[in-house]
Amino acid sequence: MADVVCFGNLQFDILCRTLTDLPEPGTIRMIEEIESALSGNGGNTAAALARLGVAVDLAGYSGADLTGAQFRTLLTTLGVGMLKLLCHPTAATGTSVVTLAPDGERSIFFINGANALFDLDAVPDAWLVGPRIVSVGSMFVLPQFTGESVGRLFARARAHGATTVLNVCWDDQGRGLPFLLPALAEADYFILSYDEGRAFTGERLPESILSRMETYTHGMVILTLGGAGCLIRTAAGLSAIPAVPVQARDATGAGDCFTAGYIAALLRGHTPEECARIGCHVASYAVTGPGAYQRIPSYEAIEQQYGRAPL
CA-CA distances (angstroms) from residue 21 to 24, 30, 104, 167, 206? Predict the structure, then answer.
């Protein structure tokens, strides 16, 4: 029985480094490297959790193509449960082209493929019985992942005793908070980036973004700040958690890996500050190379490396 079920997209990422603008039409340009990786919010989070030793299932669609078959084999090898990752009979695996700037920040072109056909309202109740945590990513990216559908899924999960974790994507259509509110009402933990929070609230100060977002959810809000770590509020007040200093090469999936680290620590009964520190540590491994999960060690190795003090 899995402790965590992850809902979200599974993507084939084509990573292009270094690229800050496109060549003129009809011309060509050589870049440093082109690599590929398993990705997507669901794929990254599930793979990172498996690397951390968490029993996890990935729920969604893989495509009916060679990439989908290879991803299923890879995820199985990593230890991710496949029973809830359905193979769509006709649709292709979602694909993204990710351009990477010198500082590791990325711009993304993508197609959803089979991901767009997964219906949260069709998820059987049996999938939500037993897991301690139900995690959802890919809101604002997948058409079926609306505020209402995620809210209904979370309500069912919470009725079965699960804790709910929400991590959204960039809102490229400007749907904003009204779209998100039904999901926030059922989210026990809401993880978002500074840029996402600024777009939602219009605020620029991290503490102001956090305060505004806290008015929309009964749960805890975790605001990630990239190289500055993250910000949370506990009973003692605001707590700024520093990032682990690293040379960032590829920020793709860093938020998903932060979420995985937070969930892994949450399952072990750590405090919110400790969960946030583990999240920052896990994200630091993700940004040092291509792909998100490959360099993440076991949870025990992280504890041995950093000890109890920084947790």
Answer: 9, 12, 14, 29, 30
Tally of structural domains, the chain: 1
pTM: 0.93
In a domain, 106, yes or no: no
Range of the domain at 43: 4-10+39-95+113-306
In a domain, 22, yes or no: no
- CA dist 269 and 251 (Å) reads 28
- Asked if residue 245 belongs to a domain, the reply is yes
Please write the tens of the pLDDT for every residue from 212-226: 999 999 899 999 999
- The predicted-structure confidence for 115-142, as pLDDT tens digits, reads as follows 999 999 999 999 999 999 999 999 999 9
The residue type found at 239 is: S
CATH of the domain at 145: 3.40.1190.20
User: How many angstroms separate the CA atoms of 46 and 43, rounded?
Assistant: 5
Q: Using CA atoms, how far apart are residues 88 and 308, in angstroms rounded to an integer?
A: 44
- Rounded Cα–Cα distance for residues 1 and 182 (Å): 29
